[in-house]
Amino acid sequence: MFRLFSQTRRCLQVKRALKRQEWPLRPAHLTAAAQQASFSTASVEHLSRSDSWPKDVGILALEVYFPSQYVEQVELEKYDGVEAGKYTLGLGQKQMGFCSAHEDINSLCLTVVQRLVERSRLSWDSIGRLEVGTETIIDKSKAVKTVLMQLFQDSGNTDVEGIDTTNACYGGTASLFNSADWVESSSWDGRYAVVVCGDIAVYATGNARPTGGAGAVAMLVGPEAPLVLERGVRGTHMEHVYDFYKPDLASEYPMVDGQLSIQCYFRALDQCYSIYRKKIQSQWQKVGVDKPFTLEDFQFMIFHTPFCKLVQKSVGRMMLNDFLAAPNPDTQSGLYKGLQAFRYSAQQLAGSRIGAFSYGSGLAASLFSMRVSQDAAPGSPLDKLLSSLSDLQTRLDARKQVPPEEFAEIMKQREETHHLVNHTPQGSKDDLFPGTWYLERVDDKHRRQYARRPL
Amino acid sequence: MFRLFSQTRRCLQVKRALKRQEWPLRPAHLTAAAQQASFSTASVEHLSRSDSWPKDVGILALEVYFPSQYVEQVELEKYDGVEAGKYTLGLGQKQMGFCSAHEDINSLCLTVVQRLVERSRLSWDSIGRLEVGTETIIDKSKAVKTVLMQLFQDSGNTDVEGIDTTNACYGGTASLFNSADWVESSSWDGRYAVVVCGDIAVYATGNARPTGGAGAVAMLVGPEAPLVLERGVRGTHMEHVYDFYKPDLASEYPMVDGQLSIQCYFRALDQCYSIYRKKIQSQWQKVGVDKPFTLEDFQFMIFHTPFCKLVQKSVGRMMLNDFLAAPNPDTQSGLYKGLQAFRYSAQQLAGSRIGAFSYGSGLAASLFSMRVSQDAAPGSPLDKLLSSLSDLQTRLDARKQVPPEEFAEIMKQREETHHLVNHTPQGSKDDLFPGTWYLERVDDKHRRQYARRPL
Question: Which chain B residues are Cβ-neighbours of A182 within 8 angstroms?
Fold first, then answer.
């Protein structure tokens, strides 16, 4: 399983409905409560602090990057000589974005971080943590994070915590958790955290190839966020499994046991949902609310998406869990009742709870939730966040469609060139979106040089 | 640069003086303050909590693993045909531990974690987080952490957060910071965190080979620790540099620019120390103490050790920093005055401040400090921690000395076999310490199977 947690179509539709707008974010609290501590020289005394965690820690802003080219899955079915509908209906896939030989994990992350900072009008020294979650390893030692430090160079800000985090598609989620923990801890110095999730998922020719993808997301994390991470409820499930892994280090392609991976995904979903429910019900009981948590208590659900069909099945799976957990299930309530919660329009996002299930093969999985702020008025943090994502459909529409023959040729080129030294990637850079970073050259010592397309 | 932060000899001597003792750790607070939150079903309400961070978050227990064999650097000098003293005096190296073909990063971490849990008499379900910092990547996707979940199997505990963290030798430090932040955050559920730092550092024949090493450390992190992480003072420096990196994914060997790496190490040390001083002086000023922080305010210093000579130079470097930062430096005070602080005997560890400088090429570096608890009485947490490490010298002495010819042969064997499939590592397992996990077999799908030598 390869992609970061993906949003359901419905969530994208919500964002799409709102128009694009750029805005400056207000500076974070630069006087850290963390520093209001007692200390001494002669003897080393205990530091104590009674401040509470900052309010509403979560996601303040989001930036999404995807490649400028894609292949139609309908055409890929024909090209691969499989029955019609195998990819589109069987897997629920429609279009697959993919990277040219000019792009690698570093260039993707450079683009998305610079875009986040520029569009949010942040200063580079307002960032105190930057962490990357990825399984697209092009160097076993040097973190993508260190490559991103090039962006900070002019600001002189090098005091930026966090490095790279890896386990299949779970790395981004772990980074988000780490960053939120940082903001609530004594380590926080009042500045923002930036969480980057990025991957280039490519497969050898065969069954798994249509489930590839590529992209990167950068999230700005701090207090007083419109998407607040709910506290003390997340459920995690970790296990030793060989369902999807990358032991052939010289290849971009993973080893995949597709059927095993689907079983693991569902098992992890069951376990995480069970723990999540237990924790949230325990919180409710403390404030006098005694009812079982069900899928209806989520107004939206986000799933890690190995392929789209699996997400549809996952919703059903969670309803089944509710049914099994209910002491006296109302069998009259109808199969689709639970789906009512997914029929929201844009305005109803405010105040809702969004569940998120993240899965990384190997395996690591968590179910957590975010609460959307109540204030959806124009100019509110929520309005700004949604507005910033309103160009997603336009950007998706602006991608270039590439025929399967060309797609296969580019995949072959990546296979043959992705680890060459003394190498300049071939082909035109003109198809990249404006402002995209790309790999310019790999020198004789494997050092990678990047450049940026003008905005 | 490859090894996790290493302790200076002096620290080892302190521990050596105390006798070995096993002890049960008391269970952590299983009722998490984090869950005392208000919540509701109908609308999703803000979670508020006024509890302060837990007291004295830091390292409760430590476990160290190193291979059972080593090569004498004096002999390696002869074997390599270099001038006498090049490795021993020039680099300050004495003996180099190394792994046989039976060991990989997974087996090292399995051993050290099981040893920590067994010797501390912990239950596997008292652990709520487990994180691994490593740059020894044998799978680009599947985290070492997931392999360690095998140890939890019988307990049924799968709700264990944290995955792997990577940037050269800095991964372990980042994991320690993440885990301490977790304990202070709303994510904490009252259980322990375990931080694992492990690496197998091997170099191609040539200048860098004598700076190799291998080992793993597991740390138990929680509140009321005898080694407390000091709050709000750490200084971090991150930069984009190609001083040491591992772009040849099929090889165990890195690319190294030794001279550049030493420059980077010192630059990072200067930067981190400068930030650390600024932060701690600002804390002091808030409580009315107005004096510059100098090296004398650390009673002990721990350095990341690429090779031992660099650490000696680093101490001098920090004194130079003090001198340059002083408004009216007392040039009469003598070069060695600052070193007085390092002449402590075992009993004086209590109450002291230990500075720690961690460096990972690429680069990521931090200077942070730990405060040692005041209570050193028999049975105190500090006494228990030190006692548990008192067998280090005995264990070092019990290692088997291997002649350079055999060392070179084993290195060659690793080169040729470390990524084979359908492979059983050759040679005898009898030299491994009792209780050591080892790689038993890699099957045709790259899946790794481990076994353990009896205790």
Answer: 178, 181, 185
